[in-house]
Design brief:
Blueprint: H1 9-15, H2 18-23, E1 53-55, H3 57-63, E2 67-72, H4 82-95, E3 101-104, H5 108-120, E4 124-129, H6 134-142, E5 146-150, H7 154-168, E6 171-172, H8 180-195, E7 203-207, H9 212-227, E8 238-244, H10 249-255, H11 282-292, E9 295-299, H12 301-315, H13 321-335, E10 344-349
Parallel strand pairs: 2-10, 3-4, 3-6, 4-5, 7-8, 7-10, 8-9
Antiparallel strand pairs: 1-2
Helix pairs in contact: 4-5, 4-8, 5-6, 8-9, 12-13
């Protein structure tokens, strides 16, 4: 069962008010009072957070929407949202005295862990599938990590890390094996509220592999309500999980009314970050979808790649295939009425397309 971090939000609210947060420089660690590190001056940081929320009017017009936005996480250090989680997780690991860090990764998490491990002066061990995007593998290696390439999926890499970490004394920083990567990812929810003038959108669409961003944002919305930064009756967004048809365990479980996922027989997709057949946070994600009145959609690799090109052609954003998948999924939701044309929709592009050149 994944752990969650809880705070004395009354004390946090006295130390950090909404107005004060607005005045602080943009960035993840401007939210130090609702992050777990006791000494924020000891944070392992590369300047993560503070990514733009950008209107995409030309894409909106092609879809028949009036109010469409992209939260562009590709502008984080290491080119993806993974920087947020790794900044907090590596900061906490170092504070606790960890001597070496390890994790499985299908792509961007490995590069981010390698970079933040280097920043912290800690050795890093990463297991990656053999077909991992070359840029992600090279990034991790150049940042000094030991990279082990293995056959199979991230699940196989996770099993390898679990066995070796116990034997070698590595600290396992895998998704939801420790609670702090969620804490870094939740800052996307705080920024979304700030950048939206403290009004949340109607719909948030999120490409989902491990799901820490999804559950982190949902946690952030509840924290902001408790802090008094959002009204008691503030309407939270409908959260939408988007996965690839070749690996859609959350979509399948949601459609069948299950409380947990079942792994697909032969998981596959070109969008490496979506190839997570056994997400450890599956119950948490499914609960968020139901609590928010949201849904889950899968799209084919062909559609998600074409949608990635469409986003680039219309708005100049060369997104990761995972981000492009959202555009394809949004077409489906508009066609079947699960999203209305007058609603405010935010898409989370989680990474940079230049790290997936093989796909194009």
């Amino acid at each position: 069962m994944p752990l969650a971090v809880h705070y004395d939000l009354d004390a946090a609210g006295e130390a950090l008010g909404r107005d004060e947060y607005e005045r602080r420089p943009a960035g993840l660690w401007s939210l130090a009072e609702v992050l777990p590190l006791e000494r924020p001056d000891q944070a392992v940081s590369l300047g993560e957070g503070g990514t733009p929320l950008l209107p995409v009017p030309r894409l909106a017009a092609t879809l028949g929407l009036a109010d469409l936005w992209v939260k562009d996480e590709s502008q984080n250090p290491t080119g993806s949202f993974k920087a947020r989680g790794m900044s907090v997780a590596v900061s906490m690991a170092k504070a606790f005295g960890a001597r070496a860090l390890a994790a499985p990764s299908a792509g961007n998490a490995g590069g981010a862990l390698a970079a933040y491990g280097a920043r912290a002066g800690l050795p890093v061990h990463i297991a990656m599938p053999e077909d991992v995007p070359a840029a992600c593998r090279i990034e991790a290696e150049v940042c000094g990590a030991h990279v082990e390439l293995l056959p199979g999926t991230i699940a196989d890499c996770g099993a390898w890390i679990k066995e070796r970490a116990a034997a070698e004394g590595w600290f396992d920083i895998s998704t939801l094996k420790e609670p702090y990567r969620v804490e870094g990812k939740k800052t996307m929810g705080y920024e979304l509220a700030l950048q939206g003038g403290w009004e949340l959108p109607d719909v948030v669409m999120y490409p989902t592999g491990g799901g820490t961003g999804l559950v982190g944002m949902w946690k952030a919305f509840h924290e902001m309500r408790a802090l008094g930064w959002l009204a008691e009756d503030a309407k939270f967004p409908r959260m939408v999980v988007v996965q690839a048809e070749g690996c859609a365990p959350v979509v399948e479980a949601f459609a069948r009314g299950l409380d947990a996922t079942e792994p697909p027989a032969e998981p596959h997709t070109l969008a490496a970050g979506l190839c997570v057949p056994t997400p450890i946070g599956d119950r948490w994600m499914l609960r968020v979808l139901r609590e928010s009145g949201g849904t889950a959609v899968s799209v084919s690799d062909e559609r998600l790649l074409e949608a990635t090109r469409e986003l680039a052609r219309t708005e100049g954003m060369f997104a990761a295939p995972e981000g492009g998948a959202l555009v394809a999924a949004l077409r489906t939701l508009l066609a079947d009425g699960r999203v209305q044309s007058d609603e405010r929709v935010v898409l989370f592009n989680t990474g940079a397309g230049v790290k997936y050149l093989e796909c194009f």
